[in-house]
Design brief:
The structure holds two protein chains of two kinds.
Chain A lengths: L4 H23 L3 H29 L7 H22 L5 H7 L1 H6 L5 H7 L7 H17 L6 H27 L8 H15 L8 H9 L8 H8 L15 H22 L6
Helix pairs in contact in A: 1-6, 2-3, 2-7, 3-7, 3-8, 3-9, 3-11, 8-9, 8-12
Chain B lengths: L8 E14 L6 E15 L4 E5 L6 H9 L6 E6 L8 H5 L2 E5 L11 H12 L3 H15 L14 H13 L5 E5 L7 H18 L2 E5 L3 H7 L2 E6 L2 E7 H7 L5 E6 L7 E2 L2 E7 L2 E6 L3 H11 L2 E7 L3 H9 L8
Parallel strand pairs in B: 3-7, 3-8, 5-6, 6-7
Antiparallel strand pairs in B: 1-2, 1-4, 8-9, 10-13, 10-14, 11-12, 12-13
Classes of the chains: A mainly alpha, B alpha/beta.
Chain lengths: 275, 323
């Protein structure tokens, strides 16, 4: 292949956009339903957000975090999980595709199978989660007393990208369990939706063991907790080294590698269905 | 085909095992089942090969190994020079695959959009795509339903759409898994004629599994029969007929009902009023002359054993496998 590496590297994302766009066009045939569903999804997101606000409103302060800092943690977590859900959420239907045989038809395409799986039934209504979350994040960033050094300004997009990549990796790795157990998406949801619920609050409220396991086992602490500590310039109340707050990109790369390995192993082990 | 072309498909000792876990939860036992064993097969460019076998014989598993969907447990396989399971994505742009039982098109999209999407996936230049789509639209008569969402197409229309999607990128090998299943006679014949034409005009190699022996008789110069995961026959259709002792049958319509005909070289196997079925074990000409001499015959037909019976006999183990 004489094509430059950059063109080849850009091919999967371009295929992703093309496929996602096609699904959007198909959905646009029913605009009312699309708008209504988007509104409902964002109502759900707003309910979750008001939950966070109510908790902080009553408690005043949790683990040294006030309502604005709490909203910052929530905003980081919900934005990252919302983006990941939009980009990769469809992978949780892997088991269903395997059973129906649709997965076989994805494997015979000259496009990475993960791209086909992730874009299957792509729907813009998941923006209904991302937009309120991003709004909350923006409000929190203004309301919190963030010392906007150039490093923090530059780090913010990197933190969001890392966090989204981490969540995507969690989603993919969770879906890979379905290569072995087709009904396992319920178990995977404990990490995906459960992970989101967990990281929406300052982790210090859960105690030391939980914080350590979501730092070193499933690195969800790097989605919202460590980035928030970095942006606010606070020491870690659970006593972990401050250097960890610079690690979100590292954690994202590691977790993506793990997810990629799971995916490859799953494909190699794939048994298809009898037909 | 000439020997200096590399084969399109080359499989040596190809096998696939499945591990089954059975029994109650705590006393589960593992059992290994071989879906495909030691299949050696070579397909030259331009061939049409029918891959036959009863349900569960390993047809689909073989096809899935050839297309890279399944990783083989043993043996080697190359398709258009690539190793399917390792180079699946590259192989995908060189072959076309159609599953008769399920569509590869996007259920909710109009057929035209679905086909446009495959153009991008296979990176076909727009001009080539337009030309080829026009050709295929003409040949497969897609015109009336190009704008219809795939979910609203009839089975025959959907099949033609799937064939188009599999052929737009001009693949060298077309793999068809039961392409005519569930279709009516007219659709079946349209698809068969189309495949013959594709093979003749573009030299596309075609590999198909089917239960429809009409497909085999019309399309396949070469037949491969698989049974219990092993190759049971690989050769041409007359050879398959000859390999199984299924005798020809003489159907005799007598002027009036009569007791069963008894002639040398013939054995009456069925009587229905004036019509009798005589199984031949000798030269038909001598039997026919004997029958017409001894009886008052209104009509005679000689029936060749149809391939369905031949294959069924082969499945029952009437012939041992060649090795």
């Amino acid at each position: 292949m004489a094509e430059p590496l950059t063109i080849r590297a850009l091919r999967p994302p371009r295929a992703y956009v093309r496929l996602a766009w096609t699904w959007c066009r198909a959905l646009a045939q029913y605009p009312t339903s699309l708008v209504l569903l988007t509104v409902f999804v964002s109502l759900g997101a707003l309910t979750e957000m008001s939950g966070v606000l109510i908790v902080f409103g009553h408690a005043g302060e949790l683990a040294g975090f006030g309502v604005h800092e709490g909203l910052l943690v929530y905003g980081l977590s919900a934005t990252a999980f919302g983006c990941a859900d939009m980009l990769m959420g469809s992978v949780e239907r892997l088991g269903r595709h395997i059973r129906s045989g649709a997965f076989d038809t994805m494997l015979i395409r000259p496009v990475p199978t993960l791209v086909l799986l992730a874009t299957d039934q792509f729907t813009p209504r998941r923006l209904g989660k991302v937009v309120p979350a991003a709004g909350a994040l923006a409000v929190a960033l203004v309301a919190c007393d963030v010392d906007w050094t150039p490093a923090r300004v530059l780090a913010l997009p990197a933190l969001l990208v890392s966090a989204t990549a981490l969540c995507c990796a969690v989603w993919v790795a969770g879906a890979c369990v379905q290569f072995v157990l087709p009904e396992a998406h319920v178990a995977a949801n404990s990490l995906t939706y459960g992970g989101q619920a967990l990281t929406e609050y300052p982790l210090a409220v859960y105690g030391r063991e939980v914080v350590r396991s979501v730092t070193f086992v499933v690195p969800l602490a790097f989605v919202s907790w460590q980035p928030a500590l970095f942006l606010l310039g606070r020491p870690d109340p659970t006593g972990l080294p401050d250097a960890l707050r610079f690690a979100p990109p590292v954690a994202a790369v590691l977790m993506c590698s793990v997810a990629a390995l799971c995916w490859r192993a799953g494909l190699r082990r794939y048994r298809s269905t009898g037909s | 085909m000439t020997a200096n072309h590399p084969p399109i498909v080359e499989a040596v000792g190809l096998g696939r095992d499945f591990v089954l876990r059975e029994g109650p939860f705590l006393r589960r036992r593992k059992r290994t089942v071989s879906a495909v064993r030691d299949v050696t097969l070579s397909v030259q460019p331009g061939e049409i090969v029918g891959y036959l076998g009863p349900n569960g014989a390993g047809k689909s598993s073989t096809m899935k190994m050839l297309t890279g969907i399944l990783t083989p447990s043993s043996g080697r396989v190359r398709v258009t020079g690539l190793e399917p399971s390792r180079e699946r994505t590259r192989l995908a742009s060189r072959i076309g695959v159609v599953f008769g039982q399920r569509t590869t098109l996007w259920w909710d999209l109009p057929l035209r959009d679905s086909l446009g999407l495959t153009r991008h996936m296979y990176r076909v230049p727009a001009a080539d795509h337009a030309r080829r789509l026009a050709e295929l639209t003409d040949l497969l008569e897609l015109g009336p339903f190009l704008a219809t969402p795939v979910r609203q197409l009839s089975l025959g229309q959907r099949m033609r759409g799937d064939l188009t999607a599999a052929l737009l990128h001009g693949p060298r090998l077309l793999v068809l898994d039961e392409p005519t299943i569930g279709l009516d006679v007219v659709s079946k014949s349209a698809i068969r004629e189309f495949l013959l034409r594709l093979n003749a005009e573009e030299g596309t190699t075609i590999l198909l599994t089917t239960h429809d022996l009409g497909d085999v008789e019309r399309l396949c110069r070469r037949v491969v029969v698989i049974d219990h995961g092993r190759l049971a026959y690989d050769g041409d259709l007359p050879g398959l007929r000859a390999s199984v002792p299924t005798p020809r049958v003489l159907v005799v319509d007598l002027a009036a009902p009569a007791p069963p005909i008894e002639v040398p070289g013939g054995r009456c196997v069925r009587v229905e009023g004036p019509r009798q079925w005589v199984e031949l074990s000798a030269n038909p000409a001598s039997v026919i002359s004997e029958v017409t001499q001894r009886h008052d015959v209104a009509d005679l037909t000689l029936r060749e054993p149809d391939i369905e019976h031949v294959v069924a006999a082969l499945y029952r183990g009437a012939v041992p496998s060649r090795d």
